[in-house]
Write a structure and sequence with these properties.
The chain is of the alpha/beta class. The protein has helices at about 35-45, 55-75, 90-100, 115-130, 145-150, 175-185, 205, 270-285, 285-305, 335-345, 360-365, 385-405; strands at about 20, 85, 105-110, 130-135, 155-165, 190, 210-215, 225-230, 310-315, 325-330, 350, 350-355, 375. It has 12 helices and 13 strands. It starts with 19 loop residues before the first strand and ends with a helix. Bound molecules: pyridoxal-5'-phosphate. Pyridoxal-5'-phosphate binds near residues 115 and 195.
């Protein structure tokens, strides 16, 4: 309270915004024009509570939700859209999957690369439900050795929960190798694809995953408040909530069948409309083209930063293979937050500093003592010109650090 806030009517439209937005790992921005337009159209013309029964318009809204399920199901290489559950975000999906699969006294294997949306549910189970959690290390290049995960699997292991792409280092893990081992042993593999969905192919079967948890507002180009989980046939997740589904309202028990089993209350129709438009945009432009564009910029950025004295890059050892366009660094003589403020205030560059909700990763890197790192994460709308400006801005900060050290 007491803080001056920008009145919303003073905000400018995206095309006039002059910031260099390099925080796409937090959420992609701006979205394709058709995302905004379709959300507006749907909310104005069919913004009613979706359902299978009732008046025509609610069926139109219900159809939009079903079509979005089909779209996402195809995107993840599935055949049954009913196994595609829509919820609020990746955190929500991971909570549904983890609390619905892991039972008191179980053993779970995870990694130190995880986001708090995996760490915190598992930590809660570890503390409150006597769940034995193994936290597997990653190497200096930012990769988890799949054999280190597989070695921990035992008779009491219920699940492996792991990240596909790191939101701090951008490294993409060899989930498929873990998936095969899990399948052979009847262990559930839950994969957090928040950073990879929409950037690189995420195919349920190729990963050997039982559940993938995704968010809609990052590279799938949808709005915030969207996400979901895709559950392989034969995998049953316990319901940890119950409520209205708009289907078979006379039943006192929450429905067992998918997708209703894990969906509760009124859907975010407007968000789902935006997500549908976002995924269609990704499909139209093509993930390969988007990824190639982002990685070309990443290469320029990584090469430029690695030539600046006083800049330390993290987990960038293996080049452009098996990664997405995210990188983290620090500048000698500064805390990460100071660098972020200078980039913002002096050069209009928007990035994210701190622990990025991945405290174990920063502890393992030793960057927790610097209060994390500076993270630059690229999106489809970034340009080479923006990357060059960013390199120039970081160079100036590094030179300031050097001058301070020598004076
Ligand atoms: C790797 C990873 N997992 C989970 C999440 C949580 O996503 P959401 O904000 O959609 O809950 C994020 C978001 O930053 C992430 O990067």
């Amino acid at each position: 309270m007491g803080k001056t806030r920008t009145p919303y009517f003073e905000l400018k439209m995206p095309k006039e915004v002059e910031i260099t937005y390099l925080d796409n790992a937090a959420t992609s921005y701006p979205k394709p024009a058709e995302v905004y337009e379709f959300m507006d159209l749907v909310y104005r013309s069919a913004g009613v509570n979706p359902g299978r029964s009732g008046f025509d318009l609610c069926r139109v809204a219900g159809d939009l939700i079903d079509e979005t399920r089909e779209l996402l199901c195809r995107h993840f290489g599935g055949t049954d859209p009913n196994r595609l559950v829509l919820c609020h975000n990746a955190t929500d999906a991971l909570n549904l999957a983890i609390f619905g699969i892991v039972r008191p006294g179980d053993h779970v294997v995870t990694t130190k690369l995880e986001h708090n949306s995996v760490i915190r549910p598992l930590w809660t189970l570890q503390e409150d439900e006597n769940v034995d959690v193994d936290w597997v290390e990653f190497d200096g290049a930012g990769y988890v050795d799949p054999t280190a995960v597989i070695e921990r699997l035992g008779p009491d292991t219920r699940a492996v929960v792991m990240n596909h792409g790191s939101n701090v280092l951008g490294t993409v893990q060899d989930v498929a190798a873990v998936g095969k081992a899990c399948r052979d042993r009847g262990i559930h593999l839950i994969v957090d694809v928040s950073q990879t969905a929409g950037k690189i192919p995420v195919q349920m079967d190729d990963l050997g995953a039982d559940v993938i948890c995704f968010t809609g507002h990052k590279s799938l180009m949808g709005p915030m408040g969207t996400g979901g989980l895709f559950v392989r046939e034969g995998v049953e997740i316990r319901k940890t909530r119950a409520g209205g589904t708009g289907v078979r309202s006379a039943d006192r028990r929450h429905l067992d069948e998918y997708p209703y089993r894990l969906e509760f209350g009124t859907h975010n129709l407007i968000g789902i409309a935006g997500l549908s438009a976002g995924v269609q945009w990704v499909n139209r432009i093509g993930m390969e083209a988007i990824h190639a564009h982002e990685m070309a910029l990443w290469q320029e950025l990584r090469d430029g930063l690695s030539k600046i004295d006083g800049v330390t890059l993290y987990g960038q050892g293996s080049g452009a293979e098996d990664r997405i366009a995210v990188l983290s660094f620090n500048v000698e003589g500064f805390e990460a937050a100071d660098v972020g403020t200078m980039l913002d205030v002096d050069s209009g560059i928007a990035c994210r500093t701190g622990l990025h909700c991945a405290p174990m990763l920063h502890e393992a890197l030793g960057t927790d003592t610097l209060h994390g790192s500076v993270r630059l994460s690229l999106g489809p709308y970034n340009t080479l010109e923006q990357i060059r400006r960013t390199l120039e801005a970081v160079r100036e900060i590094a030179e300031l650090g050097a001058r301070r050290r020598s004076s």
